[in-house]
UniProtKB/TrEMBL annotation:
The species this protein was found in: Streptosporangium carneum
Pfam family of the protein (one): Abhydrolase_6
Stretches assigned to the AB hydrolase-1 domain: 2-50
GO molecular function, one term: catalytic activity
UniProt superkingdom: Bacteria
Alphabetized InterPro entries for the sequence: AB_hydrolase_1, AB_hydrolase_fold
Protein name: AB hydrolase-1 domain-containing protein
Length: 60
């Protein structure tokens, strides 16, 4: 099953290293958002939407 991860690099709730490990474990594609916090969809909504659309396009 294709998987994508948006990893906020300034996440203080789930360390980015842990998120990278989880993504690697399932063979997921990773997009990092420099300086973004844990709630990346609120702090960087345009970036998250762009990554969602990219993931969608990759499955079409």
């Amino acid at each position: 099953m294709p998987s994508w991860f948006v990893i906020p690099t300034a996440d203080n709730v789930i360390p980015p290293a842990v998120q990278r490990f989880m993504a690697k474990r399932v063979g997921g594609k990773v997009k990092e958002v420099p300086g973004a916090s844990h709630v990346v969809m609120m702090s960087r909504p345009d970036t998250v939407v762009r990554h969602i659309l990219s993931a969608y396009a990759a499955t079409r």
